[in-house]
Amino acid sequence: MQARMMRALLIALLATTAGTAFGCPSSLGVTPNGGKAWLGMSAGGFIAGEGQSFHNDCDGALFTVAFQVVLDGLAAGGVPPLGAGDTVYAQVRTLGGVVLATRSRVLDFSTGAQWVVFDFTTPTLNLPAGDFLVVCFTASAKQGRVAYFQNGDAYGPGVRYISETGEFGPWTALTSEYGDLAIMLTLEGDVVAAERATWGAVKAAYR
């Protein structure tokens, strides 16, 4: 009888000591508020890329990255618009400029605003805790927009970045008054951490 009771107590203790690691969100996002930043070829000859740094709270996989692409279907300064069939890219980089992964998506719309989601699950992109940069660009000689939160610091742990040569940078951090790029990230999130207890500790706890 005593042995059965001790086994039950051990199971209960293990159940209560198995906890969830705090501070590991499964998603991260910045909602736009009307800001539209240039993406792609400009009439001035530079190629605009947009990015946003973010803080990864815990070691784990990054699953998806999304940017809100805004298209009006109109030429601007003689530059044709991005539209259905054109390719946009997302890249995950270190703040020091090392490219960790690149994904592409072919647009399936020509007007309106849509969240364009990039899948980083295959192969798995594991990130340590720390600060990283996600960027959006196109290699097409066309132009569009990406949405951002303007005139304020919506996301304190990160800042907006820009490039005037698309993918090739340099990627330059802006100050907080230039807002934050609209992004949605899905992450591995919380993991279960099991804590072990010795049989002697269990018996001592219930004496």
Explain how this protein is built.
The two termini are 16 Å apart. The protein is mostly beta strands. The N terminus and C terminus are likely disordered. The protein is built from 2 helices and 16 strands. Helix content is 11%, strand content 44%.
Write a short abstract of this structure.
With 207 residues, the chain is mainly beta. It has helices at 2-17, 199-205; strands at residues 19-20, 27-30, 35-41, 47-56, 60-71, 87-94, 99-106, 112-119, 125-127, 130-137, 143-149, 160-163, 172-173, 180-181, 183-187, 192-193. The protein is 11% helix and 44% strand.
How are helices and strands ordered from N to C? HEEEEEEEEEEEEEEEEH
Q: Name the helicity range.
A: 10-25%
Q: Give the termini separation.
A: 16 Å
Structural class call reads: mainly beta
